[in-house]
Amino acid sequence: MSQKFSIQKSASALALVFAGAAGTFIGVQSFPSKAQISEQPIAQLPAPIPSNVAPNFIATAVERTGDAVVRINSSRNTSRESRFGSDRVLRGTGSGFIIKSDGLILTNAHVVDGADRVSVTLKDGRNFTGQVLGKDELTDVAAIKIQAANLPTVRIGDSEQLKAGEWAIAIGNPLGLDNTVTAGIISGTGRSSSVIGAPDKRVSFIQTDAAINPGNSGGPLLNQQGQVIGMNTAIIGGAQGLGFAIPINTAQRIANQLIASGEVSHPYLGIQMATITPSLKESLNSDPRSNIRVQADRGVVVIDVVANSPAARAGLQAGDVISQINNQSIRTAEELQQALDASTIGSNLPLAVVRNGRSLALSVRPGEFPT
């Protein structure tokens, strides 16, 4: 690489925790067998609910979707030596939801990662062996198939239309508590992977304060109409009300590729980039170790270019400021990444670049993300 630059985050050392329980053991709290329960007098009976009150929209949404939410158990054998012997089985639990009545299920990749066996339990108690059709580590999406017919399915919403403040409803199996429902709001959209502490992912997450816990991974996040708008994925450990879901539009796009071929192709440029902000501009321009000097007040600055990458072959250099991609104006690195994700590997992608005050027109052919 021609230039290295490290951008330090704020001092809060919060760890991202994926909400699946894969590879862990869940303990069960035990209570005394002869616990004494004293009866308390009832001060007042609750008033009857008037017949003209509208039904609870959360309950209605759950009724529409709950039957299509499943529990996913995964297990794998390990050969690590321990005092219990040389072999043991690691078990994990997650959630998923049925998108086709013939048994096609979506969940998180980390729920089934490394699993030797996958079993799926429906809400009605039936159990099936699950076949992993494919999983994508970059977006944390997996597709599973069970041999069944006439199954209930979820209704799919549009995550592009979400607004902060809208209702959000999560369904899943946290800590083995099947079909648990929690509710909150959409706290934000377009949260980049790097911002939430998952730089190895390529997702613009939905943020919600609906409670998400281990075992919720892969379960649906619903809007108030009961439509799936996201896939519950992660929380930030040590914080409250900070949960994250993969937008359903992203999950569906990835799932379609997994179902068709078992793998996903991701367009790749080979740059380290950052959104220009006043603080970043000042930091770059005042750092004696950096050769990058930024004049622009907005756009996406190239921090580094990977050698022999598509970006290097197109002539991009550290310090370039990208203002357009594919003839669309961009202001943030997240917008550039979204435009790249929507492109096709090998196609010509026009870039509008400013270098040392001069405007340049470049064309790059995205390659496939290296594994």
Return the domain count: 3
So what's the overall shape?
elongated
Superfamily at the CATH H level of the largest domain? Trypsin-like serine proteases
Q: What is the CATH level 1 assignment of the largest domain? A: Mainly Beta
Distance separating the two termini? 18 Å
Unreliable runs = 1-14, 21-43
Major sheet details = 7 strands, antiparallel
> How many β-strands, per DSSP?
23
Order of helices and strands: EHEEEHEEEEEEEHEEEEHEEHEHEEHEEE
Strand order of the largest sheet: 6-5-2-3-4-8-7
Residues in β-strands, percent: 35-45%
Structural class: alpha+beta
GO molecular function: serine-type endopeptidase activity
Protein name: Serine protease
Domain PDZ: 253-357
Pfam family, one: PDZ_2
Provide structural commentary.
This protein is of the alpha+beta class. The protein has 3 domains: 57-145, Trypsin-like serine proteases (Thrombin, subunit H, Beta Barrel), CATH 2.40.10; 154-261, Trypsin-like serine proteases (Thrombin, subunit H, Beta Barrel), CATH 2.40.10; 267-368, PDZ domain (Pdz3 Domain, Roll), CATH 2.30.42.10. It has 7 helices and 23 strands. It has helices at 57-65, 109-112, 193-196, 248-261, 278-286, 310-314, 333-341, and strands at 15-18, 69-78, 88-100, 104-107, 117-121, 127-129, 131-136, 141-145, 155-156, 167-172, 180-192, 204-208, 220-222, 227-237, 243-247, 267-268, 271-275, 300-305, 321-325, 328-329, 349-355, 358-364, 367-368. Strands 6-5-2-3-4-8-7 form a 7-stranded antiparallel beta sheet. The protein has a 6-stranded antiparallel β-barrel with strand order 10-11-12-15-14-13. A hairpin with a 5-residue loop joins strand 14 and strand 15 (243-247). The radius of gyration is 24 Å and the shape is elongated. The relative contact order is 0.14.
